[in-house]
Every structure is written in structure tokens, then in C-alpha cells.
Design a protein that fits this description.
Its main location: membrane. The protein is built from 14 helices and no strands. By secondary structure, it is mainly alpha-helical. The longest helix has 28 residues.
């Protein structure tokens, strides 16, 4: 039952993540990527901190503080900068497709580090889901912006940060609780981003932002940061890194739908076909016998 809850949390996190891609795409041309990340995770931390204090959950032990801080800097510091910067160059759907390399990257990273055994069923499921995403976004790829490849590379680099976080964070989560772990890590990332933004004057255009942009920023802080990453961390505490990571293939579908609604990006029948393949791939990778490799 715990693993089913973990997979469900990962899927919901990825749906929210897809909407966050589109929301970021909407606002990123009007604010520096560093400042946007500072707002997103600053708001998320301010929401999570009192919830964490009231929850009574175990906080990371003093011996783990350095590791939690390093993971926070990686996931809530470097990741959002790469993520936000990538969407300056590419569309929300195409950016989400690049992020969907995460299951493959996580699966390979976990296998190389001896954390999770690579199985044929799991590999097939990841491959089917990724091909489903490619089919869903085929039209978007053919009409890509001129410099979209820069955004693709930045998003793949962001996915690599996320892959290492997925694998390295599990022992720290096991010794604390998901909400306190993500709260502390997000706080570290927010402090780093705010500090760099102040040094670079990244907040300078902020007073010129209109209400719709502020609405998108607040959405990113509450739903795209606090709730999304709590669910993701909860999922990592209850199932394997690859089974969590494959849920990210839902992300481009959600990004495409929201991009169609608020950004006038194209929606095609390919998305329906791709969604079916994504569901099949997730089913293959998340069912069957759990691998008996090393589990943290």
C-alpha cells in the first residue's frame, strides 16, 4: 500500500510540475531566471516551514545537515536556474519533453551507483513512456524556435541534477521525514538564490510586474514548489527512484494542455496517442516484482 501511495504522489507531483512548466514559460520573459527561482522557492519555503513545525515530524540529524544542504543547493538552487533559463529558448511542451529524459537518467544513475537493479521490464516501461512523450510532442518539435536546442540542453542538465537528487536523497529522507527534509533543503536553495539575485540586481524589474505575472509566481511558489516537491519527496520515501522518476513522463502532457490554454501553443491528436503510451509505460515500469538490488 505504501508503494502505491508513493507512485500516486509522484504522478500528482508530475501533473503539477507540468502546469509549472507552462506557468514558468508564461512569466520567464519578464523576470530574471534567478529571481523567479528565488520567489518560487522562497514562497514555497515560507509555506512549508510552519507546516513542518506543526507536523511534529523528525528533522534531519545534525550529522546529516551538510548532506541535506548540498542536496538542497543542487535541487532547489542549481536545478531551477537551469530549468527557468531553458524556457527562455524553447516552448513549454518541448522543454517538458527534454525533462522527460529524467527516468532514463535516474535509472542509469541508480544502477551505476548500485542503488537499484536494472531490469528488462523497468527499462521497457521507461522506453515506452519516453517514446509516448516523443509521439505526443512530434508536431511541437517540427515547429521549434530557432534556438530551441539551447533550451533542450539546459533542461537535460536540469534533469541530471534531479536524477542525482532522486538517488542520493533517499537515506536522508529515511532518517527524517519527507516534509522536514524538503523544507530544510528548499530553505537552503531559497537562501542561495535570493543572495545571488541580490548580488546580480535580478530583482530590479520586479516592481514592473503586473497582476497576472504575480499570480503565476504565487502559483509557482505554492503549487509548483511547496506541494509539488513535498509530493515528490514523499514518493521517494515510499518507492524506488526509477518508479518515481518515470512519472515525469506525465509532465509534458500536462504542460502541453496548459500551454494550449494560456500560451496558444498547438494541441494535436498526437497528444492523445502519446498519453496512452505514457500510461502503458508507467504501468510496465511500476508493476511486477520489485527489484532486489541494494535498497537504501
Amino acid at each position: 500500500m505504501g508503494e502505491i501511495l508513493g507512485i500516486a504522489a509522484a504522478l500528482l507531483s508530475s501533473v503539477l510540475g507540468g502546469t509549472s512548466v507552462a506557468a514558468t514559460r508564461y512569466v520567464v520573459d519578464s523576470i530574471d531566471p534567478l529571481a523567479l527561482g528565488a520567489f518560487r522557492f522562497g514562497i514555497g519555503f515560507l509555506f512549508l516551514l510552519p507546516v513542518s513545525l506543526l507536523s511534529g515530524g523528525r528533522w534531519p540529524r545534525r550529522i546529516d545537515w551538510a548532506g541535506v544542504a548540498a542536496l538542497g543547493a543542487l535541487f532547489f538552487g542549481l536545478f531551477p536556474v537551469l530549468f527557468n533559463a531553458s524556457l527562455i529558448y524553447t516552448t513549454s511542451a518541448r522543454g517538458a519533453l527534454a525533462l522527460s529524459t529524467l527516468p532514463l537518467l535516474t535509472m542509469l544513475t541508480a544502477a551505476l551507483l548500485g542503488i537499484e537493479r536494472l531490469t528488462t521490464r523497468k527499462f521497457t516501461g521507461v522506453l515506452v513512456a519516453t517514446l509516448g512523450v516523443a509521439a505526443a510532442l512530434l508536431t511541437d518539435i517540427s515547429s521549434a524556435p530557432a534556438n530551441a536546442w539551447r533550451g533542450d540542453l539546459l533542461m537535460v542538465a536540469a534533469a541530471m541534477c534531479m536524477a542525482f537528487y532522486n538517488v542520493w536523497s533517499r537515506p536522508f529522507i529515511a532518517r527524517a521525514s519527507p516534509i522536514t527534509f524538503v523544507s530544510m533543503g528548499m530553505g537552503v536553495g531559497a537562501v542561495i538564490l535570493i543572495t545571488i539575485s541580490l548580488l546580480r540586481d535580478s530583482f530590479e524589474p520586479v516592481p514592473l510586474l503586473s497582476l497576472p505575472y504575480w499570480s503565476a509566481i504565487i502559483f509557482l511558489g505554492l503549487f509548483g514548489a511547496a506541494i509539488t516537491f513535498f509530493l515528490w519527496t514523499f514518493a521517494l520515501a515510499h518507492t524506488t527512484p526509477t518508479r518515481v522518476a518515470i512519472s515525469i513522463t506525465v509532465n509534458p502532457i500536462a504542460a502541453s494542455l496548459v500551454g494550449m490554454l494560456i500560451l496558444d501553443e498547438p494541441f494535436t491528436f498526437n497528444i492523445i496517442i502519446g498519453l496512452a503510451a505514457v500510461c502503458l509505460g508507467i504501468g510496465l515500469a511500476t508493476t511486477g516484482t520489485r527489484s532486489k538490488g541494494k535498497v537504501l
